[in-house]
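User: I want to check something. If I give you two sequences, will you return the structure for each one separately, not as a complex?

Assistant: Yes, each is folded on its own. Here is the first sequence with its structure:
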Amino acid sequence: MNSSVTLTPEMEKVLRFLSTSKKITIDKLAERLSFPRAKVDLLTSELEKLKLVNRGMKTISRADLTADGSEVVEKGLPENRLLNTLKAEKEGIPMAKIGSFIDLPKNAINAGIGKLRKEQLITITKGIVTCAPAAEPLNAELEEALSKIADNPFVKIDAKILSELSQRGSILIKERQETTAQITDFGVKELPNIKVTEEVSRLTPDQIKTGDWRSLNLKKFNLASKPKTIPSGRKHPYLSFLDEVKTKLIGLGFSEMRGPLVETEFWNFDALYQAQDHPAREWTDVYVLKNPTHGNLPLDKELVKNVQIAHETGDPVGSRGWRYKWDPKKAARLLLRPQGTAVSARTLYNLKIPSKYFSIARCFRPDSVDASHLSEFNQMEGIVCDPTLTFRDLLGILKTFAEEVAGVSNIRFKPDYYPFTSPSVEMSALHPTLGYIEFGGAGIFRPEVTAPFGITEPVIAWGLGVDRLFMVKQEINDIRELYTHNLDWLRKVPLT
């Protein structure tokens, strides 16, 4: 650089700061100089054109504690809490009763037992778990790392420890790209020769009249450069899709039905003639509330009695029932709604005939998360009651939904079984990448479901995974992308 090249005072200030520091991110540079971040980005770009500064990219990682991680910071790792509990009970604890001695989920207790047994810190004899009083806690480095992360999410932690904490679900690792700036060797060499001159970006009327503008150092503008794109706000594409679904269903004459997220087993299972010993009612398939554990059964005692009779004997529809003693306490147990059909069950009470209803219900199940499953999802429920309805009408409605709502043409039906419908059908549609994926099930409510409500007319019902409908419509390969933070996708995906 020769002495005729000049910099603005702000550019000179940036360059001199960079001469006293190593590579630094634009964000930190803006903070140190008390400049707006956008201005520092522009200044370093101009300096890079003069070969005085090198700009690059740096990956910044941060680790945020999950709820489990915060609990570990407060109480310790589950295996160590379990170890301390066993130490306090010198005679040991029966394997089946450990849950009453420590506030840990069953899966955490089992995992902790496995870790302690592997390290030979405990013994299990005739179902009694014991440990030596001198047994030392495990994985102290994990607890120490979590404490450091709680104080500073950007703290440097060994990669293996971070991987272990991530697999345990104690932390969420987030990465982002940040622009960096560093003075070049050429910039260091030429720094003493820099001339500083104030650039003028605006002219006053007097400067134009007098001609003084000719002697000013005018700022150069690149008229060919495109301005920075500032994206406007927009509704999430998936939420827009749900609104579209609602609009179409209302346009078809459906009324919207609603129900609570926290539901009793009565409305979610019993009123739908699902046996109380059905596997779908176990802790592996539902989220049960810890406090309060139970709600209230319907005030209509006759309805409750009718549901009980349907389960125990099958009267008055002539079936055999489930042949067991119905338990009202189990029916009153509270859980997070695992299926939207609970909303349909509530709507059967005082149902108008003929009528048709729909709901888009938020549901919760402890499923393993993968490309087509989430533990929290939406179901599109519907029921239609009319004396003239047939099973063929149901298939036609399902086909119309898939074609009109998701734009799907390749649909197939196959027989299925549900405790509350007969006949029942499963609907699948062809995804361009994943192949045929199940959308949901449907059928005609069994008499054991409708008779306790005093309904004698046929009621067709369905429950479809509206999340998967959106996946097919937008050709999304992973259902988790519905909740992505990918701004580029969120801004470019077309809204219907």
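And separately, the second sequence with its own structure:
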Amino acid sequence: MPFVIYTTPNYTENAVRFIRTLANLTDVRLGLISQEPKEWLPTDIQHRLADFQQVDDVFNATQLEAASKLLSGRQGQIHRILGAVEQAQVSVAQVRESLGITGMNVETAYNFRDKGRMKNLLRGAGLPCARHQKVTDQESAFAFADFVGFPLVVKPPDGAASQSTYRANNAEELEKALSLNPPAPGHEVLLEEFITGDEFSFDTFSLNGKPVFHSLTQYFPNPLEAMREPWIQWQVVLPREVESPVFDDIKQAAFKTLDALGMNTGMSHLEWFRRQDGSIAISEVAARPPGAQITTLISRANDFDCVAAWASMMIFGTFPVPERKYAVGAAYLRGQGTGKVREVLGLEQVQREVGHLITDVKIPKPGQERSLSYEGEGYIILRHPDTAVVKEALSRVVSTVRVVLG
């Protein structure tokens, strides 16, 4: 029975879902490496673990390798080492290379993690993406702004989920963004031209270098705008028409992107834009399953367990292709103002109007801290065979439900 290690910094809701899925595989012995103690996990998961090792920093390859060696000494040869957190992909790859474990290597992991390096590879392959430059001082940043023009996106080269990402509409805002994350030698900041248009994701299962299944979602609005405007109730829609010819251009570009970056076996999350003139531009791509409940949307749209399918593919190299059946959407419930959650209004009306479409819910709880993410304090997921029905239902949810803080 193969011994598999999963690594995560902490036990977020998403992390617990991945750990539970892996732990419940009957033909796998699961070892876990985390910064948090095993006792913080739900009891049912604790009892399913074959072994556990706590570290101070899972992003530190030296610590991760030492912990892996301890687990291997107790459990035998490591079949796979996995992680779904983007910031851990390089350190996990370094452990693979050092211990001779099958999986993504360090060079490929850097292709996905370093967004400047990624875009250089994409432009070299003739793929459409934003003009960009990594800078080590303010002078270079303003020179790039003079060349490209405003607005610009300012972010770390290895960022994730719009963390520490800012839109600069003018020189004053660029200076402010750089003051929050000052560029310096050894601490570069990535600048990109700001692309306007509709923003989407493109999520792919790849097996032995070949795409075997893909999905896509559309964001309403784009995450950066949602971060700038706390009043916006963010929505994500997975249309049933994934195979429509209107998406042929991004499908071809996405698969070419994965080839250029060196994807072999894994799930990838690519974000892209459809400009007003109909052309596409790739924003960036991560070599891990998507966050923001997108794995749940994919599961509900195709009536299968997306996380379990990822785990089986990564460990055993198998992937049964599911049937596309539904359109699915998520409405993210964001509190207005400051303070903790006091109450949630409008749930009864939503249940009356669209309750028959709801598949998953996370209702904000009184006393819950306000989230700093565009995902807010909770969500409601809906599905229906007709994409238009899902979009209309999402509109009803975000116009009716109100999370009151105070």
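Because they were folded independently, the notes below concern the second chain alone. DSSP finds 14 helices and 18 strands in the chain. The chain has a mean pLDDT of 92.
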